[in-house]
Design brief:
The chain has 2 domains: 282 residues, Aldolase class I (TIM Barrel, Alpha-Beta Barrel), CATH 3.20.20.70; 54 residues. Helices cover 43% and strands 12% of the residues. It has 15 helices and 9 strands. The chain has an 8-stranded parallel beta barrel, surrounded by 8 helices. Helix 6 links the parallel strand 5 and strand 6.
């Protein structure tokens, strides 16, 4: 019997909802919601979460609290990575203000950005110099993994991009992030460009694409294919429900489904084995609630119409064999459980809740308290959480606060300078 040759290199997911997703104009997430997002992503088997900005004062407590969850074993094996500019001072501040051990260092590389953003302050050589200084500083500060982020890579001169990537490698970077910052690439151009960079620098490639021209998932998986074909690992950046600046980033579920079920990837390219699609439905619903953005009915995998059939020909074909009109079963996404909606009397908890109503809610969650003192302490945190999110708390949030009260307290605490 002939053995099937399994691909040597792997496609992993680096979700950036808590960094790029929260930069969606007019929207955002509270620190508790960002923490819950990390918990969901960990449960889903996502390799890494780019979880915030270590040099931003209002992120400090949240970042250190989440790193404490890692230390406690509550957030494992996911890697929590911070994002800073690729300048030495940012790296020093990140190491001083937080306990972060994994960093992505970002700097613009296209002539458009160099001239249009920096206005003559820096040239191409300066960009490389600043990046190299930042990488070397990160190594000295004990940063465990260092990603180097070429902003606007898709509009960067290809020879210069290779030079930039090689300089990053020699300085000690662990991987290169190719950023299609404006969604400028198409699936063919990104394949050729990523292949060239990967073959030249022999570092794992990270694909960070935007949806300005509607090709974000296609470009993301095509870039990953180029990296794998060149013999290096690939990391695809995603956001839950495709959130992100302007038209958004690559949707987490869409990317995973594309790699698992499309004809060009299925059984030909290896997706990280930890990925658990059965969490997809819950993660998508939570993100929709937290951001306050409804899931479109035609959203891939989790939209209400994703598995709906109406026309006579389709319905007839589906009823005979669902594989006629569905590539994958809805159950693989964790769909199918009933949504329970309270239609009678209902007690919720919020910033003005009393102890009796609070105990009633937690009794329904089957969370027990040792004594009244513990219950009162958790109630106070729940009140703060409600002020913090300005939304009724979800079941998962309520359970998290009861289970990790000290972590929750740190997340809610902000002290302006």
């Amino acid at each position: 019997m002939k053995k099937e040759n399994k691909p040597k290199n792997i496609i992993r997911i680096v979700d950036v909802t808590n960094r790029d997703g929260v930069q969606t104009s007019k929207l955002g997430l509270a620190k508790l919601q960002k923490t819950m997002m990390n918990m969901f992503l960990n449960e889903m088997g996502v390799y890494q979460s780019e979880f915030g900005f270590p040099v931003t004062n209002h992120e400090t407590n949240y970042i250190n609290a989440n790193l404490e969850l890692v230390r406690m074993g509550a957030l494992k094996p996911i890697i929590l990575e911070g994002w800073v500019r690729a300048i030495k001072d940012d790296v020093i501040k990140a190491a001083k203000m937080t306990n972060v051990k994994d960093l992505n260092l970002s700097i613009s590389t296209s002539d458009q950005m160099i001239q249009g953003k920096f206005k003559g302050k820096y040239g191409r050589k300066d960009i490389v110099r600043l990046m190299v200084e930042a990488v070397k500083t990160a190594k000295k500060k004990g940063i465990r993994t260092i990603g180097v982020n070429a902003e606007d890579a898709s509009r960067t001169d290809l020879d210069y991009l290779v030079e930039f990537a090689l300089a990053a490698k020699h300085a000690g970077a662990d991987r290169i992030r190719y950023c299609d910052t404006l969604g400028y690439d198409d699936p063919f151009s990104i394949y050729d460009r990523v292949a060239t960079v990967a073959e030249s620098c022999r570092l794992p490639m990270e694909l960070h694409c935007h949806n300005d021209l509607g090709m974000v998932v296609a470009c993301s998986v095509s870039g990953a294919k180029a990296a794998i074909d060149a013999g290096v690992d690939a990391y695809i950046n995603t956001c839950v429900n495709g959130m992100g600046e302007r038209a958004g980033n690559a949707d987490l579920v869409s990317v995973i489904l594309a790699v698992k079920y499309s004809s060009g990837f299925r059984k030909k390219y290896a997706l990280d084995e930890r990925i658990d699609l059965s969490c997809a439905w819950r993660v998508g619903k939570y993100a929709s609630y937290a951001f306050g953005v409804p899931i479109p009915i035609n959203q891939v995998g989790i939209g209400s119409n994703a598995f709906s059939h109406e026309s006579g020909i389709h319905a007839d074909g589906y009823l005979k064999d669902k594989k006629n009109y569905e590539l994958y079963d809805y159950k693989v996404l964790g769909r199918g459980e009933p949504d329970i909606i309270e239609t009678g009397a209902n007690i919720t908890v919020g910033e003005y809740s009393g102890i009796k109503g609070f105990r009633n809610v937690y009794d329904k969650l089957e969370v027990k308290f040792k004594n009244d003192e513990e219950a009162t302490r958790i109630l106070e945190l729940v009140r703060y959480a409600n002020v913090h999110t300005q939304k009724p708390l979800t079941r998962e949030e309520l359970v998290f606060i009861a289970k990790y009260p000290d972590i929750a307290k740190n997340i809610f605490t902000m002290t302006p300078k």
